[in-house]
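Hi F.,

I've been meaning to write this up properly since the lab meeting, where we talked about keeping a consistent format for the predictions we share between groups. The idea is simple: the sequence comes first, exactly as it goes in, then the C-alpha cells exactly as they come out, then a line or two of notes. No screenshots and no reformatting. I'm using this chain as the first example so we have something concrete to point to.
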Amino acid sequence: MALAAVLTIFAAVPAFAQLPTAIADGLNSIEDNSAEEEEFTPGWEMTVGADQMTAYNWRGVRSSVWPWSYNIMPQICFDWYLTSDLSFEIGLYDVEEARCTWKTDEFGTKSANRYSELGAWFYFNFYGFTLEVQGYGLDRFMWNRGDYKEEMGGAVLDLGLRYTLSVLDWFQPSIAWYSILAGDDFRYSVYNEEYTDLRAFSSYLELALPFYYGNGFSTQVTVGCNPWQSPYYSHYTDGFVVSNLGLNLGYTFEFDNGISIPITLEGGYNFAERGYNWAFDDHINTQGWYYGIKLGFNFTKWLSK
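Output, unedited:
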C-alpha cells in the first residue's frame, strides 16, 4: 500500500515539471471559436477505468483516512450520443480504501477507520444542462467518525442539475446544485447530540472554473457551499457554510488506441471542518485542509456509430 502511494506521487513529477512550457505552448495552439468544429458522430461509447488516490475527497469532504491513505476507484460507464447537444450516460463505480485501522476509546468502544462506497449514476445532457441522478451506498458515515457507523450507514439518492457555458474551448465554467432527496439523510441536533426524524435534504451548490491550456494540461478552481446544516457536508454547523475552496492541477496522457492516463493534484479548504477536536481519532484534520494525488487509467471504445 505504501509503495503504491509513493509510485502515485512520483508518477506525477515528470508531467508537472514541464508545466510552464507546456501551458505556454498550449495557449498558442488553442483555436478560437470561429474555427471549424469537428464533425459530430452519433453512437454508443464505453469507458472502463480506475483511479488510484492518496485521499478520496468528495465535494470538499475528506471521506478516507486523513492525511494519507490508498484508495482505488474502478468504474465503467456507457454514453449514448444522439446529437451534439443531446446525450445520455449511465455508470457504476466502487471506492475502496486499502487499509483498515481499528481504534478503541476510553470506554472500550471499537470502531473501524475505513471507507467503502458503491455508487451508480445517470446523466442526461441537453443544450448545456446536465441532469444528474446518483445513488450512493455507504459502508459507514463519512469524515471517518467510526462512532456513527451504525446510524449513518445505508444508501441515499442524490439529484443534481448543472449548467455549463461552453462558449470558449479553453474556459468552460459551470454551476451546479445537488440535493439528497431520499435515503439515510436526517438532521442532527447539535444541542441534543442526536439525530432527529426531520429530513435534512443535504444540498451542495458549486461553481467550477476550469481552464484548458492545451497539450493535456488543465486547472480548475472550485467554490462550493452548503445552504443549511447537513450530516454529509456540514455535520456540526447550523447554517450556511463554504465547504469547498478547491484547486486542481491536471495533466492527461492521451494515446491513439483509446487509452488515457490522467494525473491530478488537488487541494482545498473546508470551513465546515475547521476547529473541531475529536479526542479519539488522531487522523482527523481539525484545520479543514484537504489534499491528494490521483492517478487514473481509462480505456474508451466506440460500440456503434
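Notes:
The chain has one domain: 2-29+43-304.
Helices lie at 2-17, 19-29, 149-152.

If this format works for you, I'll send the rest the same way.

G.
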